[in-house]
User: Fold this.
Amino acid sequence: MHLSWILLSLLGSSTSALALQDSDPAPDALFVRGERVILSPDREIAGGAVLIQDGKIMDVGADVTAPLGARVLEGKVVVAGFIDGWTTLGLSSETAADQQTSPASRTTDGLDPWIALAERREALAAGVTAVRSQAGLRAYFGGLGVVLRADPALFWESEASGLLSPDACVGASLGLPRFGNLPDVFERVAEVERLAARIDAGRRYHEAEIEYRYALAEWEEAIAEKLNGLEKDAKKARKDREKKLKEAEEKGKEFKDEKYKEDKKPKAPRYEEDDAVMARVAEGEIALVVEVHRAEEIRNLLAATSGFDRLRLVLSGATEALPFAEELVTRGIPVMVWPAPLGPARPSEMKRHDLALAGELDRAGVQVLIGSGGAAQARDLRLLAAIAVGHGMDPKKALEAITSAPASVFDLEGRIGTIERGAEADLVILDGDPLDSLARIRFVVSAGEVVVESKE
Amino acid sequence: MKNASAAVLILLMPLADAGPSAGCARSADANAPTQQGENRAELVQIRAKSIWVGDGAKIEDGVLLVEGGRIRKVGRGVELDSRVPLVEHYGVITAGIVVCNAQAGAAGEAFDETRALLPEARIADAFSPEHSDFDRAVAAGITTLVLAPTAENVAAGLSAAVKTAGGRVLQREAHLLLSFSNAALDKGDAGFSFFFGAADEELAQGGRPEDTESSRRGARAPTSYSGALAELEQRLARPEGAFSRIARGDLPVILEAWERHEVMRAVRFATKHKLKGALRGASLASDPTVLAAIQASGLGVIVGPFELGQPTAALESVRALTAGGVPTAFALGGSEASPEQIRLSAALAVQAGADAAAVWRALTIDAARVAGIEDRVGLLERGRDADFVLWSGDPLDLRSRVVAVYVDGNLAHGDAR
Assistant:
């Protein structure tokens, strides 16, 4: 019997505490054994197992044993489900291509559990268990993006089980075609300035809110004090007031109650939904993911946002980001890369698209994420990571780029992207290394359910 | 060989008046296809962890010995030549990739808008071997390309098999391209404009380049499937030029057909006239009816290129075709495709269930067969052209890198220590 298992049981999970012994049946448990269990990109155990119950990872280690009656899956390699940080899965193409979204637009409002079912199932079968989905993907502001499970069945069950985060980030883009027109260089500069102004408006909104809160507290305190004082001298005050009232009546004058300065209750700032969302962005509560490609825009964006200490900026695409690697490292700005082959005919902002970017940024110390940039494309996330490795990226970092890195950017660390106790039971079981494009997936476990089993 | 001495003369002439860099490698004389190789006594010997012959055999710790642009020996325990340094490669050596249907270095020449039938147009006369497309192809491990006009014309012209380094033409007239695709019909419609060369700006403007010229001109005949078919039937009824050669079976065809009904029409046409060659497209070949028709016709199929998110049905066609014994090759397409896409296409096909060994053959020897150059390239065998790639690992694993590429025995990309 594993000590930690007893401890865990004692700590009061939903399972029947101490009673769970080796011999105790746990018919709804899932037990996944692998020759290699990759806990996180830089930690793995040889010959280990993962115990799953109620959709969560209950235990993991080399000496975990299967409870009686548990379903046992075996495979060569066990790894956390992949996370695609850049998709439009679950959105209609109109919602995905919407150009009129604003910071407060919510992707949750556009989610359609019936859309792109085949694509979602294929992504799931390819080991992609969670995706960030973004309405207005290429809009100036796409609004609040979500992280949802690829498994459509979960979404039907309840929104809560299908949705891992309803507000994972705010999406934006710079220098992309707007309504079919490519912005010229001045418009592109202006876009960056407007973005910075938006963040600043968010910050000011946040400050105004704080000021209001302080002022309100002060006012409430002052009022309380006054009331206290008034209560003490209530009798005298009433007499005084009655006297004054009488005098006024006798003289035929109008009576006015004494005004206190405490009567002036502070006014709440006017509610602006976009500013309210940008306030959360400015405060670093949620990440701001900006698709930006050209060096000019990246330089301007970095300069314009350098004053926002709490801002959690993430660049996506970032075709020409390499010259800024040092600053990206210093400021802790992750980059989401799209290492897909592109022919000579390509969008002008991606003229310098290079498959080596992921590896070069990584070697420079930048936190790299890899995303597929579409809906059906999510299926091929694993191949994208393999291409990045083929062009010089460290294999561990490439795995990180589709597991723990996106989990951390979207504040889902410890829930998805790693195999650890208490995490969501999202696992992929393969017959080879996760990034080997010849390796085949045997099983996919999503929220503790075996959702994919290969026939071979 | 009788040609050899003539080749020497041809080679010496440009050498004499223009210096060594001028003519020899760039010569486009198809009648002396081996002139460059045969006159080079250069020796290369490489020992590798694994040498893939290409027919399924893998030689562990094998040695590849190249002389005069040809493979002299390949195997285990090959006696080393002490005159040449031995290159040690801790990875895999395979034959270079052969791609059917590409427009590298011939972007603007790949179609002619004015006439629907240009059966004698030779892309071999049009491509530019200095174009950077070829460098990119070499860097991706591709050593031979079948350059082909696009499906924009009902009879688009003659394809050519060329080496990616040096621009040597292996097969000046490899196929006649006939299109059964709606892309060849009704050229007044801008819907089927492909993006060539410097189309970036137009692309960036939010879509396809404006086809105002052809809109002004109006539709080009034929504008219907039946019209195109009648035109082709007519040409074959009184065969002359390229049509006479396909009718005799001297020249293979590539029949462009994507939709199910287009494929069925093309297959019927090929069967009726006993044409040899391959279909290009046929993305629904996993459909049993379509597959059976293709099998019965004896035609091969050129698939791809596949991109990220490619519909699974198209990917599954590779498994159906290779398992069904249909000679299969991969295409690269126009300038919207990257040479890197060739291995991505293959990996996508493998992920969709195709057998890895069969997919590898489709990238090499089967493609060479479709191109009619299977006696020259596609396998690492004694006497064949020394076109090979040094990979860091299994070439179908996208994690593997191209370490070095040799074409005709010459190092064309990368470095070999």
